[in-house]
Amino acid sequence: MPALLVVLLAALAALPYFAPYFYIFVATEILIMGLFAASFNLIFGYTGMLSFGHAAFFGMGAYACALLLLHFEVSLLTAILGAMLASTLLAAAIGFLSVRLGEVYFAMLTLAFGMMVYAVAHQWRSLTNGSDGITGFRLTEFGLGLDLQLFNPAVYYHVVLVVVVLASLVLYLITRSSFGLMLRAISENPERVAFCGVNERRHRLVAFIIAGLFAGLAGALFAPFNRVASPDMVHWTQSAEPVLMTILGGAGYFLGPFFGAAMFVLLETWITSFTEHWMLLLGIALALLVMFFRRGVLGTLLDKVTGR
Amino acid sequence: MRTARVASRLAPLAVAGIALAAAFGSTTQAQEGDPIKLGAIYITSGAASVYGQYAQQGLRLAIEEINESGGVLGRPLTYEIEDSQGKADTAIQAARKLVFQNEVDALVGLDSSGVATALVPIMPELQRPLIITHAATPAATGELCNRYTFRVSANVNQNMKAAAHIAADTGAKRWTTIGPDYAFGHESWEFFGKYLKELDPDVELMSKTAFPRFGNEDFTPYINNVMALKPDGVLISVWGGDLVNFVRQANNLGFFEQDMEILMTVGAATEVLAALGDDMPEGVWLGTRYWFDAHDNPINEKFVKAYMERHDAPPSYNAEGAYAAVYAYKAAMEKAESTDPEEVAKALSGLSFEAPNGTITFREGDHQATVGPTWGKTAAMDEATGVRSLDPMRSFDGKEVTPSVEETGCKMK
Amino acid sequence: MQSFIAALLNSLDIAMLLFVIAVGLNIIFGVLNVINFAHGGLYMLGAYFTYMLVGRLGLPFWPALLLAPLAVAAVAVVLERLVLRRVYDRHVTDSLLLTFALLLIIDESVRMIWGSGIHVVRPPDLLRGNVSFLGVNYPVYSLFVILMGAAMLLALWALFTRTRLGRIVRAAAIDRDMAQTVGINVPLVITGVFAFGAWMAAVGGVIAAPMRAIDPGMGDKIIIESFIVVVIGGLGSFPGTLLGALVLGFIHGFGGRYLPEINLVLPYIGMALVLLWRPQGLMGRGAAA
């Protein structure tokens, strides 16, 4: 079984050698968005909290990374670590205020905080360059003494692949740990967990912070990939993307969000090629997928395979 | 261990998916006699999609005209369009797709400043010429300039220098602004103030201004605030659907009956004027990058006639920008006798060609077309087109309003 | 003083339009437990139908006020029966995603049918011009919006508290199974409630048509605002929606006037403050709604 996972990873690693050039960019985007969605799923699928402001941490990561590269010309690794730190702090602050709220109110409060971060990115023109965003930062070196040509899309893709795989591994281990099991228990029956003397709110907060940290990592990979950190990356429409990807792929499965991200990005790439009315087709596709793949596409496919 | 099993079952699926993607992505080499492909990036969905629609009308018209008369270098022209959604990262991914997947020979497009500031710096990686037809941020042909990037339309710098001339001539002394709260609104006010001060050092640029958020629907509080300031003149850089809302609400509040000079920097946009009809009051100064009725030359005559036959409405500035860009590529490819991107970019630099708004030259120093906007005062309704006519009207010569290359901050690489 | 009155009147007409739209959203949530993203699309459809009836076919405004919402309600019946019905037994996020898909479909269909252009509808002659009110120039049409909002408020209150139909709907909202066992045709009630919510959104669209630019982005603009109204007021609370609409109306009217620098973020600051102070909204029922 692990052998097949290795085959998948090998195929991904070899992708630049057999896929058309443009698909390096597509695959990079899928990996980054997949990580973003997977971080969201730690609080959604595993803890039962629907956040509508997750882009705040993604955007924070993107901005912190871009600013560090622009003003301090640090290595990419340093910038990424700095970005993760910044996102973690932001997640701690927002999470502290939000996690005590019930489902829909939690979604709307995180939306509100997300839009406040958006407003800061949009209005603090001296720091963030306002609506135009931060561009013109340079990728000099990766760090750790590695001599990587980061401007080469294939090299950057491989960097992203390694980082995303490592991050996913950590996330996966978290979900399998006793902490992760506690999160599931909370999402299934918060009252009972609280009754057992577990500090439910603190578990939620920690999950929220970890999710923010990994969303920040995804954002920190995204800004150098597109050479820009812009307010769009913090807007609520950006927060909607991991929600769509996760539900589409299957929130009950660790790889569901990655699968959803792949479907979403590929659908968008293909549909926009042959019609201007891609929103219509995307809408129809989404509606059909939700109606007929009730455990997400990955979940439903697996159910078919395992004959459940 | 369920997840591990899940992963293992997923693997063949994923491998199949990657293979499928590769199959979708397979491309063929371009050959002699194949069409020359232009890649277009505009907003084609959502509230601002009207701009993408106009640009496409201009592209199509120019391409059909050129193909009917033998194409370029004996090859027909064609185009593929991608939606930028007005977002920087979406536009960049769209540009990569057009260049690497669809293998377009050249790029044209861009509706927003944010998209332009993000995309222009990566043009050296894409190695294709890009002609910007709408986005107005001075940076694209200023500090961000590079050898692949050109702009055929007037930028904020040029438009505000012209606006300052109009404003100085009105004699109004105390000025304020109402503009959208993003780069375009703030830059417009900044450049307007700078040039107006140069022309008339006595003017006062008020510190109280109004920048409602973009996409705002109720401007009443901002209009009331500005009216309470009692300025002599107001620069309004609100545009599109927001401007339609603004003008109707301003009418209700008696804004236009005040003793003020009013300049709307993108007011003479046909989509706005057609929607407003006679809700747009008379006696207001409107600016535009291009006005269909302002240029007396055979190309403009042909363009306006052909456009009106097709769409039963006068062409908007965004249709003209895209139309002109196609003719710029035609001229450059014929000058270079090649469609090679490097050669075409070289040929575009310093190129002069005929467009509906006159003879246009891409300056060598910063690749900005030396074009001037048209400003006019709203007058009687023109029954034939359903929009207000402009009288008096003043089309600025590009040389008059384009700052020197040194001032733009461009260091061409 | 005059500027205060102007801001007050301005806030009121914004609030009443928001109330008409958001109350439909809240009723749908209360009975169907669906967070209806497509609500913005249905509002937009109301405005476009009005544009078609008034702007293209040359009908007066008043029949459009009657016809356009009915047409949208008919669309809603189809959507509910064919699409939404399938996900009621699932988690609320599935319906969220499904209605988001519907919003995409409605948005793009509108663009395909009516184009990307900007349209306007002129107010009827009766409602044009201004009145002077305590020394403030006030558009007659804004006065009409306030009166319409108040009329809807009274009618809804009477419907829910004074009629059998209202009690049936409330019963279905509180406990579907119980309602079913006492002989209420719950599926029919649900279809009816969704159509009614859509009808309210469309009434909002018709009212907005003569004062707001009609373009393919108008549905997206209103939906988050409506969510904010509902959440500030409290999910499932009818008086809460009115309160939420007033709060947001005041934020826009007074915020734009006195705090214009932070106008972008004021609605969100308002919502966050309310939720931090009262986690279930101003008039919501308990935390785990």
Task: Tell me briefly what this model is.
The complex is a heterotrimer of chains A (308), B (413) and C (289). Chain B has 413 residues and is α/β, with parallel strands linked by helices.
- Strand portion of chain C, in percent? under 5%
Give average pLDDT of chain C, whole number. Answer: 91
Biggest beta sheet summary of chain B: 7 strands, mixed
Number of strands of chain C: 2
Distance between the ends of chain C: 41 Å
Helix content of chain B: 40-55%
Give me the side-by-side strand order of the main sheet of chain C. Answer: 1-2
Strand content of chain B: 15-25%
**Total of helices of chain B:** 15
Enumerate the spans of chain B where pLDDT stays under 50 for 5 or more consecutive residues. 1-9, 22-30
Q: SSE string of chain B, helix = H, strand = E?
A: HEHEHEHHEEHEHEHEHEHEHHHEEEEHH
Oligomer: heterotrimer
Helix content of chain C: over 70%
How many helices of chain C in DSSP terms? 11
Largest interface, with counts of residues having CB < 8 Å to the other chain, equals: A-B, 57 and 53 residues
CATH architecture term of the largest domain in chain B? 3-Layer(aba) Sandwich
* Overall form of chain B: globular
Q: What is the structural class of chain C? A: mainly alpha
Quick one: CATH superfamily of the largest domain in chain B? Response regulator
Task: State the order of secondary-structure elements of chain C, H for helix, E for strand.
Answer: HHHHEEHHHHHHH
CATH class of the largest domain in chain B, please? Alpha Beta
Keywords:
heterotrimer, B: 413 residues, alpha/beta, Rossmann fold, 2 domains, seven-stranded mixed sheet, 15 helices, 14 strands, 44% helix, disordered N terminus, C: 289 residues, mainly alpha, 11 helices, globular
Please specify the SSE layout and strand pairing:
The complex is a heterotrimer of chains A (308), B (413) and C (289).
Chain A: H1 2-18, H2 22-43, H3 55-72, H4 76-98, H5 103-123, H6 125-128, E1 134-135, H7 153-176, H8 178-188, H9 190-195, H10 200-226, E2 228-229, H11 236-249, H12 256-274, H13 278-292, H14 296-306
Antiparallel strand pairs in A: 1-2
Chain B: H1 2-25, E1 36-42, H2 49-68, E2 77-83, H3 88-101, E3 106-109, H4 113-119, H5 123-126, E4 130-132, E5 149-151, H6 156-170, E6 174-178, H7 183-199, E7 204-205, H8 220-229, E8 233-236, H9 240-252, E9 261-264, H10 270-276, E10 285-288, H11 298-311, H12 317-336, H13 341-348, E11 352-355, E12 358-361, E13 374-382, E14 387-395, H14 398-401, H15 405-408
Parallel strand pairs in B: 1-2, 1-3, 3-4, 4-5, 6-7, 6-8, 8-9, 9-10
Antiparallel strand pairs in B: 10-13, 11-12, 13-14
Chain C: H1 2-32, H2 39-56, H3 61-82, H4 92-114, E1 130-133, E2 136-139, H5 140-162, H6 164-174, H7 176-181, H8 186-208, H9 218-233, H10 238-258, H11 266-277
Antiparallel strand pairs in C: 1-2
